């Protein structure tokens, strides 16, 4: 009779059968307590516009309740070419997908990859288990709900460059203002067929030291750190 349970079809929905087992195992072994997951926070976003892709990210890196870095660069250059010729964006996506799938989620990296190639403008999200989606706009991180609301409200097909930059900036700003794990400056990266315009910082936070004043944010209408390089950019969630 007991063996018949082996062949029973599992019931759909969530299964919490291992909860009691895990609690019992914790009491049997010294130091065998289930590790507490470390919370990391950020807000990253991307938008496909008429002539390319705009990526954006905040610059705060957190480790649990500690702000580890206030100027963390989360938009990373990949490569102008692979094996002597210009790569398609999907090639870079496949490489990231294969690498993350190999570790079955043990590398907790949620990635947004944007680029422009001969087939058009592309924006992908790559999850820690190797799952891939191609989207016209996207936000990820602990502040993604606030950012996604801005993107859904303001996105339109065939956006021009300046409206696309402002949309990404507003999305990241919403994540910063509504999430303690996101903050400090905003970096913007514009990718077109002509190259890459990496503006760091695009918007800089200004903190006043007076005791009873609040944090204010001002938009810098300047081009900070411009880098012209290849046409593929990766933005990461840490």
The structural class is alpha+beta
Mean of residue pLDDT? 80
- Name of the CATH homologous superfamily: Aminohydrolase, N-terminal nucleophile (Ntn) domain
Shape: globular
Beta-strand share of residues: 25-35%
Span between termini:
49 Å
Q: Walk across the major sheet and give the strand order.
A: 9-1-2-10-11-12
Question: Biggest sheet, open or closed, and with what strands and sense?
Answer: 6 strands, antiparallel
Got a strand count? Answer: 13
How would you sum up this structure, described in words?
- This protein is of the alpha+beta class and about 240 residues long.
- The chain has one domain: 4-Layer Sandwich (Glutamine Phosphoribosylpyrophosphate, subunit 1, domain 1), CATH 3.60.20.10.
- The protein contains 4 helices and 13 strands.
- The strands form 3 sheets. The protein has a 6-stranded antiparallel sheet, with helices on one face. The chain has a 5-stranded antiparallel sheet with strand order 5-13-6-7-8, covered by helices on one side. A two-stranded antiparallel ribbon has the order 3-4.
- Helix 3 packs antiparallel against helix 4.
- The longest helix has 18 residues.
